[in-house]
Specification:
Blueprint (H helix, E strand, L loop, with lengths): L1 H21 L6 H6 L1 H18 L6 H30 L10 H23 L6 H31 L20
Helix pairs in contact: 1-3, 3-4, 4-5, 4-6, 5-6
C-alpha cells in the first residue's frame, strides 16, 4: 500500500496541476470531476496503510482507522464508476449535457451499487456479494450501451459536411465557449 499511495499522490498532483493550472482555460467539468479518482485512491491507500499497520485493531485509534477505511472503500467504487460512466457517455467530450433519462438511470444504478457495496461489507456471508455482482453487471451494460450511443453520436458529427451544423450533436469545436 505504501508504494501505491505514493503513485496515487503523484497522479493526484499531476492531474490536479494539469487541470487547474497548466490547462485551466480548456479544462471542462469532466476534468475536474476526474480529479477525484486519484484523490480517492490516494486517501484509500494511506488509510489502508494505517489500517493494516494497526492490526489487531484493539485500540481506539485502530478502530478509527478501520472506520474511515471502510467509509472510503465504500465511496471510492461508485465515484470511479461514475467517472467511467460519464466518460463513456461522452459528457463534456462529445456532448455538453446528458438527457434526463440517462442521468436518472445512472444515478439509480450508482445508488443501488453504493447500497450493495455497503451490504457486502456489512455481512459476512457469500450471498452478500450477489447484489453487488448484479449491480456491477447492470453498470457494465449501461457503460457498453453508452459507448455504443456515443460512437453513434460521433458518427453523426463526422458525417455532417464542413460548414453545416448538426444541431442535436454539435462538434466539440462548435460548442459555445465556457464563461
Amino acid at each position: 500500500p505504501a508504494a501505491a499511495a505514493q503513485v496515487w499522490w503523484l497522479l493526484t498532483v499531476l492531474w490536479t496541476w494539469n487541470t487547474y493550472r497548466a490547462h485551466a482555460a480548456s479544462a471542462r467539468d469532466l476534468h475536474r470531476l476526474l480529479c477525484w479518482v486519484p484523490i480517492m485512491q490516494f486517501v484509500h491507500g494511506i488509510l489502508s496503510l494505517f489500517n493494516y499497520s494497526s492490526c489487531p485493531w484493539e485500540t481506539t485509534l485502530a478502530l478509527v482507522y478501520a472506520t474511515f477505511w471502510s467509509i472510503v472503500t465504500i465511496l471510492k467504487e461508485p465515484v470511479m464508476l461514475l467517472c467511467l460512466l460519464l466518460v463513456s457517455k461522452g459528457w463534456c467530450i462529445t456532448r455538453n449535457t446528458l438527457d434526463r433519462r440517462e442521468v436518472c438511470l445512472a444515478g439509480s444504478i450508482l445508488a443501488m451499487l453504493y447500497a450493495s457495496v455497503s451490504v457486502q461489507m456489512s455481512l459476512d456471508t457469500p450471498l452478500a456479494s450477489v447484489p453487488m455482482v448484479i449491480m456491477y453487471i447492470a453498470m457494465l451494460i449501461e457503460i457498453a450501451w453508452s459507448i455504443f450511443n456515443n460512437l453513434r453520436i460521433l458518427k453523426a458529427q463526422v458525417s455532417v459536411p464542413p460548414g453545416a451544423s448538426c444541431e442535436r450533436y454539435p462538434r466539440p469545436s462548435e460548442r459555445s465557449p465556457r464563461p
